[in-house]
Design goal:
The chain contains twelve helices and no strands. It has 282 residues and is mainly α. The chain has one domain.
Length: 282
Protein backbone atom coordinates (compact mmCIF):
# COMPACT_ATOMS: atom_id res chain seq x y z
CA UNK A 1 0.00 0.00 0.00
CA UNK A 2 2.84 2.43 0.82
CA UNK A 3 4.42 1.77 -2.59
CA UNK A 4 1.10 2.56 -4.29
CA UNK A 5 0.50 5.71 -2.26
CA UNK A 6 4.09 6.86 -2.79
CA UNK A 7 3.88 6.39 -6.55
CA UNK A 8 0.48 8.07 -6.82
CA UNK A 9 1.69 10.95 -4.67
CA UNK A 10 4.71 11.42 -6.93
CA UNK A 11 2.54 11.37 -10.07
CA UNK A 12 0.15 13.96 -8.64
CA UNK A 13 2.98 16.25 -7.48
CA UNK A 14 4.95 16.00 -10.74
CA UNK A 15 1.80 16.63 -12.75
CA UNK A 16 1.08 19.64 -10.55
CA UNK A 17 4.59 20.98 -11.16
CA UNK A 18 4.23 20.46 -14.92
CA UNK A 19 0.88 22.23 -15.11
CA UNK A 20 2.01 25.12 -12.90
CA UNK A 21 5.16 25.74 -14.94
CA UNK A 22 3.17 25.53 -18.18
CA UNK A 23 1.20 28.55 -16.96
CA UNK A 24 3.99 30.52 -15.26
CA UNK A 25 6.35 30.13 -18.23
CA UNK A 26 3.81 32.05 -20.33
CA UNK A 27 3.71 34.86 -17.78
CA UNK A 28 7.43 35.33 -17.21
CA UNK A 29 10.42 33.92 -19.08
CA UNK A 30 11.20 30.18 -18.70
CA UNK A 31 14.63 30.97 -17.27
CA UNK A 32 13.04 33.17 -14.57
CA UNK A 33 10.55 30.39 -13.78
CA UNK A 34 13.48 27.98 -13.42
CA UNK A 35 15.32 30.40 -11.14
CA UNK A 36 12.37 30.83 -8.80
CA UNK A 37 11.56 27.10 -8.75
CA UNK A 38 15.18 26.41 -7.78
CA UNK A 39 15.12 29.09 -5.08
CA UNK A 40 11.93 27.65 -3.59
CA UNK A 41 13.37 24.13 -3.81
CA UNK A 42 16.59 25.22 -2.11
CA UNK A 43 14.71 26.78 0.79
CA UNK A 44 12.73 23.54 1.19
CA UNK A 45 15.65 21.10 0.87
CA UNK A 46 18.64 22.85 2.45
CA UNK A 47 17.53 22.27 6.07
CA UNK A 48 17.41 18.50 5.48
CA UNK A 49 20.87 18.44 3.88
CA UNK A 50 22.26 20.56 6.69
CA UNK A 51 20.71 18.29 9.29
CA UNK A 52 22.33 15.19 7.77
CA UNK A 53 25.75 16.89 7.63
CA UNK A 54 28.49 16.44 5.06
CA UNK A 55 28.76 12.71 4.19
CA UNK A 56 32.06 11.21 5.34
CA UNK A 57 32.35 9.20 2.11
CA UNK A 58 32.07 12.26 -0.14
CA UNK A 59 35.09 12.27 -2.47
CA UNK A 60 36.05 13.66 -5.88
CA UNK A 61 34.27 10.85 -7.74
CA UNK A 62 30.98 11.31 -5.90
CA UNK A 63 31.29 15.08 -6.17
CA UNK A 64 31.67 14.76 -9.94
CA UNK A 65 28.49 12.66 -10.15
CA UNK A 66 26.65 15.26 -8.05
CA UNK A 67 27.72 17.97 -10.50
CA UNK A 68 26.39 15.84 -13.38
CA UNK A 69 23.07 15.43 -11.54
CA UNK A 70 22.79 19.15 -10.91
CA UNK A 71 23.71 20.35 -14.40
CA UNK A 72 21.60 17.78 -16.25
CA UNK A 73 18.53 18.39 -14.08
CA UNK A 74 18.70 22.17 -14.37
CA UNK A 75 19.32 22.00 -18.12
CA UNK A 76 16.44 19.57 -18.54
CA UNK A 77 14.05 21.76 -16.57
CA UNK A 78 14.97 24.81 -18.63
CA UNK A 79 14.19 22.89 -21.84
CA UNK A 80 10.90 21.60 -20.40
CA UNK A 81 9.80 25.06 -19.30
CA UNK A 82 10.71 26.46 -22.71
CA UNK A 83 8.71 23.67 -24.37
CA UNK A 84 5.70 24.25 -22.11
CA UNK A 85 5.75 27.94 -23.02
CA UNK A 86 4.98 27.22 -26.68
CA UNK A 87 3.77 23.61 -26.81
CA UNK A 88 1.01 21.38 -25.50
CA UNK A 89 1.29 19.99 -21.99
CA UNK A 90 0.25 16.47 -23.04
CA UNK A 91 3.01 16.12 -25.63
CA UNK A 92 5.78 17.82 -23.63
CA UNK A 93 5.02 15.81 -20.49
CA UNK A 94 4.76 12.50 -22.37
CA UNK A 95 8.07 12.89 -24.22
CA UNK A 96 9.81 14.10 -21.07
CA UNK A 97 8.60 11.02 -19.18
CA UNK A 98 10.78 8.94 -21.51
CA UNK A 99 13.73 9.96 -19.34
CA UNK A 100 13.76 6.46 -17.85
CA UNK A 101 14.20 4.98 -21.31
CA UNK A 102 17.19 7.27 -21.88
CA UNK A 103 18.74 6.18 -18.58
CA UNK A 104 18.22 2.55 -19.59
CA UNK A 105 19.91 3.18 -22.94
CA UNK A 106 22.90 4.78 -21.22
CA UNK A 107 23.16 1.77 -18.92
CA UNK A 108 23.26 -0.51 -21.96
CA UNK A 109 25.91 1.62 -23.66
CA UNK A 110 28.06 1.38 -20.53
CA UNK A 111 27.94 -2.40 -20.47
CA UNK A 112 24.62 -3.49 -18.97
CA UNK A 113 22.81 -6.27 -20.82
CA UNK A 114 19.34 -5.58 -22.22
CA UNK A 115 16.61 -8.20 -22.53
CA UNK A 116 14.75 -8.55 -25.82
CA UNK A 117 11.47 -7.43 -24.24
CA UNK A 118 13.12 -4.27 -22.88
CA UNK A 119 14.66 -3.52 -26.29
CA UNK A 120 11.24 -3.83 -27.93
CA UNK A 121 9.78 -1.51 -25.30
CA UNK A 122 12.44 1.10 -26.05
CA UNK A 123 11.49 0.85 -29.72
CA UNK A 124 7.82 1.42 -28.79
CA UNK A 125 8.74 4.54 -26.83
CA UNK A 126 10.81 5.86 -29.74
CA UNK A 127 7.87 5.26 -32.10
CA UNK A 128 5.59 7.09 -29.68
CA UNK A 129 7.88 10.12 -29.69
CA UNK A 130 7.82 10.17 -33.50
CA UNK A 131 4.01 9.94 -33.65
CA UNK A 132 3.59 12.59 -30.96
CA UNK A 133 5.67 14.99 -33.05
CA UNK A 134 3.14 14.98 -35.92
CA UNK A 135 1.28 18.27 -35.79
CA UNK A 136 -2.05 18.73 -37.59
CA UNK A 137 -2.23 22.46 -37.00
CA UNK A 138 -3.25 24.40 -40.09
CA UNK A 139 -1.43 27.52 -38.98
CA UNK A 140 2.26 27.42 -40.00
CA UNK A 141 3.42 29.26 -36.88
CA UNK A 142 1.60 26.81 -34.59
CA UNK A 143 3.11 23.84 -36.47
CA UNK A 144 6.54 25.36 -36.03
CA UNK A 145 5.93 25.89 -32.31
CA UNK A 146 4.79 22.27 -31.93
CA UNK A 147 7.93 21.07 -33.68
CA UNK A 148 10.20 23.19 -31.49
CA UNK A 149 8.37 21.98 -28.36
CA UNK A 150 8.97 18.36 -29.39
CA UNK A 151 12.69 19.02 -29.92
CA UNK A 152 12.96 20.77 -26.56
CA UNK A 153 11.14 17.87 -24.87
CA UNK A 154 13.48 15.33 -26.48
CA UNK A 155 16.46 17.33 -25.24
CA UNK A 156 14.95 17.45 -21.76
CA UNK A 157 14.38 13.68 -21.75
CA UNK A 158 18.04 13.16 -22.73
CA UNK A 159 19.33 15.41 -19.96
CA UNK A 160 16.96 13.98 -17.35
CA UNK A 161 18.03 10.48 -18.42
CA UNK A 162 21.67 11.38 -17.79
CA UNK A 163 20.65 12.76 -14.40
CA UNK A 164 18.73 9.60 -13.50
CA UNK A 165 21.68 7.44 -14.45
CA UNK A 166 24.03 9.59 -12.37
CA UNK A 167 21.62 9.54 -9.42
CA UNK A 168 21.49 5.76 -9.67
CA UNK A 169 25.27 5.63 -9.37
CA UNK A 170 25.36 7.58 -6.09
CA UNK A 171 21.97 6.88 -4.49
CA UNK A 172 23.30 3.96 -2.44
CA UNK A 173 26.36 5.88 -1.25
CA UNK A 174 24.91 9.25 -0.23
CA UNK A 175 21.88 10.39 1.79
CA UNK A 176 18.77 11.27 -0.23
CA UNK A 177 19.01 14.93 0.81
CA UNK A 178 22.42 15.19 -0.88
CA UNK A 179 21.09 13.64 -4.09
CA UNK A 180 18.24 16.19 -4.11
CA UNK A 181 20.48 19.16 -3.35
CA UNK A 182 22.75 19.52 -6.46
CA UNK A 183 20.08 20.71 -8.94
CA UNK A 184 18.92 23.36 -6.48
CA UNK A 185 22.47 24.57 -5.80
CA UNK A 186 23.32 24.67 -9.51
CA UNK A 187 20.03 26.38 -10.29
CA UNK A 188 20.58 29.11 -7.70
CA UNK A 189 24.29 29.68 -8.45
CA UNK A 190 24.23 29.35 -12.26
CA UNK A 191 20.75 30.68 -13.06
CA UNK A 192 19.16 32.71 -10.24
CA UNK A 193 22.16 34.72 -9.03
CA UNK A 194 23.38 35.82 -12.50
CA UNK A 195 19.83 36.88 -13.44
CA UNK A 196 19.56 38.83 -10.18
CA UNK A 197 22.92 40.54 -10.68
CA UNK A 198 22.09 41.74 -14.21
CA UNK A 199 18.56 42.74 -13.23
CA UNK A 200 16.79 40.20 -15.45
CA UNK A 201 15.18 38.01 -12.80
CA UNK A 202 11.52 38.51 -13.65
CA UNK A 203 8.64 38.07 -11.23
CA UNK A 204 4.96 38.90 -11.11
CA UNK A 205 2.14 38.48 -8.64
CA UNK A 206 0.25 36.47 -11.23
CA UNK A 207 3.08 33.96 -11.63
CA UNK A 208 4.04 33.77 -7.93
CA UNK A 209 1.56 31.06 -6.85
CA UNK A 210 2.53 28.87 -9.81
CA UNK A 211 6.31 29.00 -9.30
CA UNK A 212 6.00 28.47 -5.54
CA UNK A 213 3.67 25.52 -6.05
CA UNK A 214 5.97 24.04 -8.71
CA UNK A 215 9.06 24.33 -6.52
CA UNK A 216 7.37 22.64 -3.57
CA UNK A 217 5.67 20.01 -5.74
CA UNK A 218 9.01 18.96 -7.29
CA UNK A 219 10.50 18.27 -3.85
CA UNK A 220 7.41 16.54 -2.40
CA UNK A 221 7.05 14.43 -5.55
CA UNK A 222 10.57 13.06 -5.36
CA UNK A 223 10.23 12.51 -1.62
CA UNK A 224 6.95 10.65 -2.10
CA UNK A 225 8.48 8.47 -4.80
CA UNK A 226 11.50 7.66 -2.62
CA UNK A 227 9.34 6.59 0.33
CA UNK A 228 7.20 4.43 -1.94
CA UNK A 229 10.22 2.90 -3.70
CA UNK A 230 11.54 1.58 -0.39
CA UNK A 231 8.48 -0.68 -0.31
CA UNK A 232 8.32 -1.50 -4.02
CA UNK A 233 10.42 0.17 -6.70
CA UNK A 234 8.47 -1.19 -9.68
CA UNK A 235 5.05 -0.14 -8.40
CA UNK A 236 6.17 3.34 -7.35
CA UNK A 237 8.09 3.96 -10.57
CA UNK A 238 5.23 2.85 -12.83
CA UNK A 239 2.66 4.94 -10.97
CA UNK A 240 5.02 7.92 -10.70
CA UNK A 241 5.69 7.92 -14.45
CA UNK A 242 1.98 8.39 -15.05
CA UNK A 243 2.37 12.09 -14.27
CA UNK A 244 2.40 12.49 -18.06
CA UNK A 245 -1.07 10.97 -18.40
CA UNK A 246 -2.41 13.05 -15.50
CA UNK A 247 -0.93 16.21 -17.00
CA UNK A 248 -2.52 15.51 -20.38
CA UNK A 249 -5.95 14.78 -18.86
CA UNK A 250 -5.97 17.87 -16.65
CA UNK A 251 -4.70 20.06 -19.52
CA UNK A 252 -7.59 18.80 -21.66
CA UNK A 253 -10.18 19.93 -19.12
CA UNK A 254 -8.49 23.09 -17.79
CA UNK A 255 -6.74 24.44 -20.87
CA UNK A 256 -8.89 22.83 -23.59
CA UNK A 257 -5.82 21.22 -25.14
CA UNK A 258 -6.69 18.75 -27.88
CA UNK A 259 -4.32 16.35 -29.58
CA UNK A 260 -4.63 14.95 -33.08
CA UNK A 261 -5.39 11.22 -33.20
CA UNK A 262 -1.86 10.34 -34.30
CA UNK A 263 -0.46 12.43 -31.44
CA UNK A 264 -2.81 10.74 -28.97
CA UNK A 265 -1.59 7.34 -30.19
CA UNK A 266 1.98 8.50 -29.78
CA UNK A 267 1.44 9.83 -26.26
CA UNK A 268 -0.32 6.60 -25.28
CA UNK A 269 2.56 4.53 -26.69
CA UNK A 270 5.08 6.53 -24.67
CA UNK A 271 3.10 6.22 -21.42
CA UNK A 272 2.54 2.47 -21.86
CA UNK A 273 6.14 1.95 -22.95
CA UNK A 274 7.58 3.83 -19.98
CA UNK A 275 5.42 1.84 -17.56
CA UNK A 276 6.35 -1.48 -19.19
CA UNK A 277 10.06 -0.65 -19.26
CA UNK A 278 10.00 0.26 -15.58
CA UNK A 279 8.46 -3.11 -14.73
CA UNK A 280 10.92 -5.02 -16.91
CA UNK A 281 13.96 -3.28 -15.41
CA UNK A 282 12.78 -3.60 -11.83
Amino acid sequence: MIAILGGLGAAVMWATATLCTSRSSRMISPVSVLAWVMIVGSVASLPFAAASGVPSQLDVRLLAWLVVIGVSNVGGLLLVYSGLRIGKVGIVAAITSAEGAVAATIAVLTGERLAVAAAMTLALIALGVILASFSREEDAAKRRHDGVAVLLSCGAALLFGVGLYAAGRVSTELPLSWVLLPPRVVGVVVVALPLLLVGKLRFSREAAPYVIAAGIAEIIGLGSYTVGARHGIAISAVLGSQFAALSAIVAFFLFRERLARVQLVGVTAIIVGVAALTVLRS
